[in-house]
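Weekly sync notes, structure subgroup
Attendees: PM, AL, DS (notes)

Item 1: joint prediction request from the bench team. They want all three components modeled as one assembly rather than separately. Inputs as received:
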Amino acid sequence: MRRKKETANIENMEMATRRRGQWRDILGRLFRNKLGTLGVIIVVVLLILIVFAGVFTKYDYSAQDFGSRFLLPSLEHPMGTDNFGRDLWSRLLYGGRISLLVAVVAVIIATGLGIVFGSIAGYFGGKTDLIITRLMDILMAIPALLLAIAISSALGSGPIKTAIAISISSIPHAARIMRSTVMSVKGNEFVEAAQATGSGNTRIIFKHILPNTIAPLIVNATLQLGGCIMSISGLSFIGLGVQPPTPEWGSILAAGRAYIRDFWPIIVFPSLFIVLTVFGFNLFGDALRDALDPRLKD
Amino acid sequence: MSLLDIKGLTIHYITHQNTVRAVNDVDLSIDTGKTLGLVGETGAGKTTTALGILRLIQTPPGKIVSGEILFDGKDLLKESEHNIRMIRGNDISMIFQDPMTALNPIMRVGDQIAEVVYLHGDCTKEEAKERSLHMLETVGIRAERSTEFPHQFSGGMKQRVVIAMALACKPKLLIADEPTTALDVTIQAQVLKMINELKAVYNTSMLLITHDLGIVAETCDEVAIMYAGQIVEYGNLEHIFDNPKHPYTIGLFKSLPSLDKDVERLSPIKGLMPDPANLPTGCKFHTRCDHVCEDCKAIEPAYQEIEPGHFVRCLRVERGEI
Amino acid sequence: MIKYFIKRLLWTIPVMLGVLVVVFTITYFTPGDPVMTILGTGYTPERYAAMAHEFGLDKGYFGQIGSYIWNLISQGSFGKSFASNIPIAQEIAIRFPVTLKLALLSTFFVVIVGLPLGILSATKQYSAFDTSLTAVALILCAVPSFILALLSLILFGVKLRWLPISGLDTWKSWILPVATNALGGIAVLMRMTRTTMLEVIRQDYIRTARAKGLKESVVIRRHALQNCLIPVLTVIGSNLTMQLAGAIIIETIFNINGMGMYLMQGILARDYPVINGTVILIAFIVCVMNLAVDLLYALVDPRIKAQYTSGKRKAKAIRKLRSAKTEVE
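Output from the run, pasted for the record:
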């Protein structure tokens, strides 16, 4: 018994070191990719600006100043002011917190539920798999944005509800990836060996299968972040999702829409933030995928 | 005069990281109606040589660095792209190694044969179609099957289709790149026999690429042994089989099982072929050679004619030491 | 083949039914009482009961969904709008052609622009043309269509005054909505075509085609293009879906009276039958689209067709297709 434990420990250590080496390789490949590096830089700069928004801004994002409405960009207001005389730069930085947070929460929920559904379907197969796959087929048949609109009109507005609305339409994708990875890992001999030595299902799933599915799930999550930011801002823009006066990139756009003919900064700058963020996450996700699977690269 | 005369052909694959010297200073010639066997291990540069003749090297990264390829007296490397296209499939055609992937999966096999006939044949589409049916019958496939798709054929049948396609325009030179390697052993002999018969009918010359010395003995008139991008020994069948000189050639024979002789155990050549991106100095074979001397490591051996028509690239043979 | 077609069709029906149940359930459990909203200050218990009965709201979840499905199948009816009391099918009949036209036009441009650009980009890999086109596509992939719409509206509508910014009165007014809806799809299709094409032109049969002496343009057109149609078809299929969903936001920006505008009215008025009707109809169209794309695969690729016709290999073929589709998405 003790011997068995010891060998198991050695195996674990070996696996751990192998994994650490693997991650170092991956990072190396990631930074050799110029576009990937650009993506990482964009994401990191944005994160710093948003997390330490207080350091980079002089104005309270909600402070109204009717004497200085619709100011064009200047040193004082780098991105101008809005219809209430609020500093757009501060609103966009603080708004980024909401946009990113909602996106991250949505991706976490989607990935988490995707893991649950996907691993159950992939591991147990048969009828269970059939039922879950068909359910996912149904969810996939409704265009993601439409589903999010329907859920969000039912739940009402607010950051948490938006995150839930967005996440549900992203579940099938994560579940699919999880399912196919689990199915391919399950076929490996070490899983059969574990089953032969009498390990329970939960133990096999957590110990042997899940660690092997981390890489594709991380790639998927990174790539989905960009999409989620787009969907959140889209929802807020049409009046669902997050609503004014809470600053969120989409809701700032929605509020600015009335002034589109006369005051361009209120549309252009929030758009710039959304596009740059999505661009950064997309580049990062693409590079991560190539780094994890070098075969795919041309 | 020979039909094909290759002189000093050198082909490199150049990437950011390194330069792969796939083919280095290769001389070959084939007479009309004759078959030359090009023998070597995987990665020796055989396929690259063949693709070089048709100028089908993917550029970049591939590049024909120097040399000349005289076909019917014309240097193929100096011809225009248009002229080369007129030669491909018409005067020189090629059979590829893997019949499973060599055919377009979504085109009917009859159409794939008719395509090359129509292109070069100066005929109507109907005549091309007729010819494709005839070619199928020639390689032993019923003409009705011309409307089927490649996935409906077995590996051996696919290779027959490829052969029909290659011979449809009665080429002067056929390049067969390991035409039987991917096939079942039982099919190999059939396919090989068919290639030989058809070749005789059309009076076609052939460059047969293989790593199977048995096939060479049955099929070829002359043999070139290739190692690390160079021809190390060249001669007719008697030269190579009865009087091999280069240690690599001798090693190849020793590593073969034989029915005639009773050998205790086979003696494979030790070691692996050098990385073509990082070739050794001197003789490329010195890292694996049993007869290696100090000079072998420094001096690049010359390609010497040691008896009429028998060439060897070995320092110690040249010096008469082995 | 016909057997496959029927099987595939039979599978589409439960998916559609599932879609209906999901959407209906979402709106059913939405908090708030629509009858109260309609009656407003005119509330009396009698009028409430009468109104609830008229809309079938007194029947409970299963009763309501049952009669919804029954009415849809037997009369093609999506019920009546709470707000206007007009049959929803009637409203949709007016608006749906507009949205469909917008989506089809965008898809048309996606295909005729994205496909050739992707092929060119692949055949000239690493050239300046390829690099710059790939860069543009990468950026376009990060721009949501509504932002593209807003920005082009400012530039071409407000600053340059070249194009009208609302309604669909002249052909000129179609330009911005179609272009902004299509650009993202063009970028996606271009990238996908490029990747697939690069993979296909490395195949042995392309080398065979070149060895025949065919011109490079013929090699690409006759041999490479058809072989990369499967993933490309998938993208085009999912693109039409994207265009339909994207049209909803685009329509609100350009003031186009289509399904999107109708849906938005429904959401603002909490008019659930309208939300149900529009979302379910669009999802149904997506199901039919997916069905069509799956059948097209079989027409394009004889291998898939063969696998469908022989029962044994069918399951394998579908599994392969699924994984191909997953990769695409």
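Discussion: Chain A is about 75% helix and 0% strand.
Action: AL to compare against the crosslinking data before next sync.
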